[in-house]
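Appendix C reproduces, verbatim, an entry submitted by the partner laboratory led by Prof. M.T., so that reviewers can inspect both the input and the predicted structure.
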Amino acid sequence: MAEKLLNIDSSLTPLLLAWYDENARTLPWRADRDPYRVWVSEMMLQQTGVAVVNLYYPRFLEAFPTVAALAEADEDTVLKLWEGLGYYSRARNMHQAAKRLVSESGGVFPDTTEGLLKLPGIGTYTAGAIASICFNSPEPAVDGNVVRVISRLDALSDPDPAALKKRIAQGLRPYYDTKRCGDFTQALMELGALICVPNGVPACSLCPVGALCKAYRDKTVHLFPKRAQKPVKKTLTLTVFVFTCDGQTALCRRDNRGLLGGLWELPNVPEALGDSAAVEQAASWGVKPSSLLRSMRASHVFTHIRWDMTAYYIDCREKSAFFTWAHDSAMASFYPLPTAFKKFLTHP
C-alpha cells in the first residue's frame, strides 16, 4: 500500500467544490477549457496578479487568437504585447512552444503532463493546471496558494520548499473528484487567493474547510507554510543615456541571455558617471552631443536585484550608426522596452 502523504479528511473534496460553485470569481480564462487559452492565462499568472492579467489577457488573445497565430508572429511583436508584464522569458518560451506545437502536432496540445512538460516554459505546475482543467486529469497544480492551503490544513512544515511542494502534489492526487478535476485544481487556488491568504489575517471563520484545518484548530495558522529567508537584493548602479536627434531616440538590443534578454533598451553602462564622464562615454559610441539637457535619477526593483539609475538627456548633432533610432510612435507600437527604461521616456 502506498504511503499516505496527506492526513486530511476526504470530505475536503465535496466541501471545497461546493464552496467553489458558489464563490468562484468570474475570470475571462474560465469561460472555456480550451488548452491554448488556459495555457496563456497560466503563463501570465506566473509572478503576476489577477488584476494585471485581466488587462493583458484579452489584448493578447485578440492579437493571437490561436496557437498558429502566435507561432506566425515575430518575436518583437510578441514581446511588445507582453511589455509591462515582466519576466519576458515567459513570452519567448510561449512563442517557441507555439512554433513547436504547430510544426509537430498541427497546433494540438498534448493531453498528458508528460507531453506538456516537453514544451518550452512549461513546468510541473503549468502542466498540472492544463492537464486537470482542460483534460480532466487528476494532476495537481501546486502554486503558492495551494502550498499555503494544504500546509495549514495538514500542519505540514518542511525547510525545503521544493520538497514540500512535491509532497503536496503527490499527496493531493487521491483527493481529486474524477469528474471535476479542473474544478478541484481551481478551487484550491481560489481558496488560497480569497480566504487562506498569505498576509494579514486569513478569513478562517469563512473557510469552507476550516473544521478540517489542523493549524486553525491549534491556532498556529501564522506558522504555515514556513517562510524561507529572502535573499538580500543586490544593487546595480547604471548610467542611462537618452540620446535624441531629429525627433528620434537611440535604442539598442540587449543580449538574449539573462535579465530582460533580447529586449530593447536605452544605451547604458553599469557604473555611475559624472557629467564629463557621461559626455566622454557618448563620444566613444560615435555620438556628437550638441547639448546635455538634464539628468534624472530613478530606481527599478526586480525580484532579486535593484537598479539605481542616473539618466542623461543629450541632444545630438547627428545620429550614431552604433544605435537604432526610433520615433516615439515606433517605440510605442513596435519596440518592446522594459519599464525600467520607459520611465525615462515618460518623464516631463
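The chain has 15 helices and seven strands. Additional entries are available on request from the coordinating office.
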